[in-house]
Write a structure and sequence with these properties.
Layout (H helix, E strand, L loop, with lengths): L32 H16 L11 E5 L1 H11 L1 H4 L11 E5 L7 H6 L27 E5 L9 H14 L5 E5 L8 H23 L1
Parallel strand pairs: 1-2, 2-3, 3-4
Length: 207
């Protein structure tokens, strides 16, 4: 939420276009400016990808770490895409990589929520708060719990279990052995194509 750069990860999928987006950073940006930016970028892609040869029915959103948190929030909480005339079901799928699924620790800081960074809060700024069986297909990708960011794998396991228990029909959980919070993004690029291909084939079959 405070820095970094957008980029195009090495991606092994064939016939897949990557749209890399940026967002305003804290402290210049306030909460929820970064969520509004992520939603606007998502809406732009859905509305314009056809002019680049893409299919607006096959738009997946994802990101790593803070980007994964933003992707999960935009894809799970309808209020972020609603001003753009879209909703979660406008997306083909959500692929958060090592995302914080409780309220992000920096969002907690910006909103002056007391307590240690690792103390979980689940309010309307938490993907876990927005669980529903009616969400798009989801693929939760994490590094090895032995070396991942503290509590990250376990919280995503809770999200996975809650989605399944509420009847979500298509959610997967993948923990990649020996990859940490930084290197998992490279491993994610190798497993995402299988999920994307399966979902896009299902979309084509339903037409």
């Amino acid at each position: 939420m405070t820095g970094g750069q957008r980029g195009f990860p090495q991606f092994e999928g064939q016939g897949v276009a990557l749209v890399a987006v940026g967002y305003r950073w804290s402290p210049q940006a306030q909460c929820p400016d970064f969520l509004k930016d992520a939603a606007a970028a998502t809406a732009w892609t859905v509305n314009h990808i056809a002019s680049y040869g893409g299919d607006p029915k096959k738009v997946f959103i994802g990101g790593h770490s803070a980007g994964g948190y933003l992707a999960a929030m935009v894809g799970m909480d309808p209020k972020w895409l609603a001003p753009c005339g879209l909703g979660p079901r406008s997306l083909a799928g959500i692929l958060p990589v090592s995302a914080q699924v409780t309220t992000h620790f920096h969002v907690k800081k910006l909103r002056a929520i007391p307590g240690p960074a690792l103390l979980p809060v689940i309010d309307n700024f938490a993907p876990l708060h927005n669980v529903s069986k009616d969400l798009p297909p989801m693929y939760l990708i994490l590094g090895d719990r032995r070396i991942e960011f503290k509590c990250r794998v376990e919280a995503n396991e809770r999200l996975y279990a809650t989605l399944r228990n509420l009847g979500h029909p298509d959610v997967e959980f993948h923990e990649i052995k020996d990859l940490d919070h930084g290197t998992v993004v490279h491993g994610a690029a190798t497993v995402m194509p299988v999920f994307i291909e399966r979902i896009t084939k299902a979309i084509d079959a339903a037409r």
